[in-house]
Amino acid sequence: MRLLIVEDEKRLALSLAKGLMAEGYAVDVVHDGLEGLHQASEGVYDLIVLDIMLPGMNGYRVCGALRAAGHDVPILMLTAKDGEYDEAEGLDTGADDYLTKPFSYVVLVARVKALLRRRGRTAQPVLRVGSLTVDQGSRKVERDGAEVALTAKEFAVLEQLALRAGDVVSKAEILDHVWDFAYEGDLNIIEVYVSALRRKLGAGSIATVRGAGYRLVTGG
Ligand code: CA
């Protein structure tokens, strides 16, 4: 899952990003409305956290422009204080939810998770693939009923494979959803995580499809 935060208060944006990354999401941050619209238009995000008062272009207009262009990505709007802006206006522009600053971090995470679930990004919170259970809600993995401890990134890589179990998923697709754009290393980082997953889940759990990517093996 890859999230975009569009927020011009840099400290707030960075602390939100850090927290959400610790939950296992890939997070990109931009501080300007126009840049936010540009990034969001690329269509790789599973959810956007969008401030309303932004330089360049305000959040209502960013949201409206995305919807007008046909993007249905879930949008959680942030605003400065209750009553300053019209909640109905935010929802009219096509925002899915609305959070008033100051908010607790725990509430933000809960809203993000609820929104991802509601919008079908995690329609099936528990993925079952062969003997594996990948719980997208609790972010826990079990193999034959026994919990397997994974790091947040390992989980995120496995999740992408499990969402398309049986299909070949390319390294680029995994990278797009699991790493943010600050990552400038090469695609081979994914091999490191796949090796770690194979060690923990069994050597035969993930097949390499030469030149194409990886496939989570559905049998056994
Ligand atoms: Ca702002």
From TrEMBL:
- UniProt xrefs under Gene3D superfamilies: 3.40.50.2300, 6.10.250.690, Winged helix-like DNA-binding domain superfamily/Winged helix DNA-binding domain
Which key words tag this protein in UniProt? DNA-binding, Phosphoprotein, Transcription, Transcription regulation, Two-component regulatory system
InterPro entries, per this entry?
A: CheY-like_superfamily, OmpR/PhoB-type_DNA-bd, Sig_transdc_resp-reg_C-effctor, Sig_transdc_resp-reg_receiver, WalR-like, WH-like_DNA-bd_sf
For this UniProt entry, the molecular function terms from Gene Ontology, in alphabetical order, are: phosphorelay response regulator activity; transcription cis-regulatory region binding
Q: Which residues bind DNA?
A: 124-218
Residues where 4-aspartylphosphate is found: 51
Q: One of this protein's Pfam families, by short name?
A: Trans_reg_C
Domain OmpR/PhoB-type, first and last residues per copy: 124-218
Domain named Response regulatory is located at: 2-116
Give me the Gene Ontology terms describing cellular component. Answer: cytosol; protein-DNA complex
Q: Would you say which domain of life the source belongs to?
A: Bacteria
Task: Please name the GO terms of the biological process aspect recorded for this protein, alphabetically.
Answer: regulation of DNA-templated transcription
Q: What is this protein called?
A: Response regulator transcription factor
Taxonomic path: Bacteria, Bacillati, Actinomycetota, Actinomycetes, Kitasatosporales
